[in-house]
């Protein structure tokens, strides 16, 4: 049960820790100064949302997200949010691919070469179906989390940062809501595709609490590090590189590889959400659907990584607030309906 719970936990973290998050761009966009309470609120709400979505997926034994979405937002809004989720997953895939191009550009490779390096293994991953994708996440996510935490803790210790020095300043607490909302749609899309693979309710508790705790700790340390170098962030498309400039070139290469892994895992989750939804309508092999989707997304990567995050992420955060509210209220509303039956 615990082992299976960790499998879902890594899937959740892999969905969340993409280019925007691992690079620091997404955290800085929403948090920054005076955000300790905001990060705590995000962790709590994120854990609740993961538990609700996985529970519905498990109860309905879903193979794609539509039944989960229908229960959360009601049948009248399902079509609207279905379109929004498809658009979100599509643009997230575009952002991950653009991030891969930007990462390889840092090593003086072609932007398009960087995109190709992401696309090829992305298509190959779908040859092994969902089980192969879960196994891949379980292998590479611990490396990603460990590497990111190692750099952030090392930076915190070397710069002698006090993580609790501004604990009394928490005016930015409200940013927790759009930030959590931003990450709700991919969770619905991805966790809705695996409901029939969950075997026990205990797996849901392990995945929900574990992912919320891990992401909360990393977010707090990462945000504190970015505050320390806030004046330099404007000079970098990827804020993490502003931290890495303090370290040897070998460290830069290692973390750049981890950043690329984060891009890959989120692109993988996004394409999984898309193909599982489309396969309901079009009976084609997953890898062929993935190939078609990736082929369509490539031209849109020319907009650039930072530009896409700057405009699309805040917009999604606002649009998803209703879904976030519906998920957070679901346990209460569901209990009320249950009580009325008896």
From TrEMBL:
UniProt keyword annotations, A-Z: Membrane, Transmembrane, Transmembrane helix
Record field: transmembrane: 38-58, 79-98, 110-127, 139-157, 177-194, 206-229, 249-274, 286-309, 315-333
InterPro entries linked: YkvI-like
Transmembrane is among the record's keywords: yes
Name the record gives this protein: GerAB/ArcD/ProY family transporter
């Amino acid at each position: 049960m615990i082992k299976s719970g960790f499998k879902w936990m890594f899937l959740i973290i892999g969905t969340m820790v993409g280019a925007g998050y691992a690079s620091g761009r997404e955290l800085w966009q929403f948090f920054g100064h005076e955000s300790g309470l905001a990060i705590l609120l995000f962790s709590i709400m994120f854990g609740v949302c993961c538990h609700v979505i996985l529970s519905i997926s498990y109860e309905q034994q879903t193979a794609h997200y539509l039944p989960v979405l229908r229960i959360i937002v009601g049948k009248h809004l399902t079509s609207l949010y279905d379109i929004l989720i498809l658009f979100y997953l599509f643009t997230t895939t575009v952002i991950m691919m653009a991030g891969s191009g930007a990462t390889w550009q840092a090593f003086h490779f072609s932007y398009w070469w960087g995109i190709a390096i992401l696309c090829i293994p992305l298509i190959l991953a779908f040859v092994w179906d969902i089980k192969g994708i879960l196994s891949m996440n379980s292998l590479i996510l611990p490396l990603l989390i460990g590497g990111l935490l190692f750099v952030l803790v090392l930076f915190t210790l070397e710069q002698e940062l006090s993580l609790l020095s501004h604990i009394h300043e928490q005016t930015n607490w409200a940013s927790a809501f759009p930030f959590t909302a931003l990450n709700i749609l991919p969770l619905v899309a991805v966790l809705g595709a695996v409901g029939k693979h969950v075997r026990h309710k205990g797996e849901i508790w392990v995945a929900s609490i574990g992912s919320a705790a891990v992401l909360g700790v990393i977010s707090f340390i990462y945000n504190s590090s970015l505050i320390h170098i806030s004046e330099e962030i404007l000079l970098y498309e990827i804020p993490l590189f502003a931290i890495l400039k303090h370290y040897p070139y070998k460290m830069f290469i290692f973390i750049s590889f981890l950043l690329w892994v984060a891009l890959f895992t989120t692109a993988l989750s996004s394409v999984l959400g898309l193909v599982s939804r489309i396969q309901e309508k079009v009976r084609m092999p997953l890898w062929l659907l993935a190939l078609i989707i990736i082929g369509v997304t490539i031209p849109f990567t020319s907009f650039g990584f930072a530009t896409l995050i700057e405009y699309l992420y805040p917009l999604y955060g606002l649009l998803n607030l209703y879904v976030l509210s519906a998920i957070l209220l679901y346990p209460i509303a569901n209990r009320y309906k249950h009580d009325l039956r008896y």
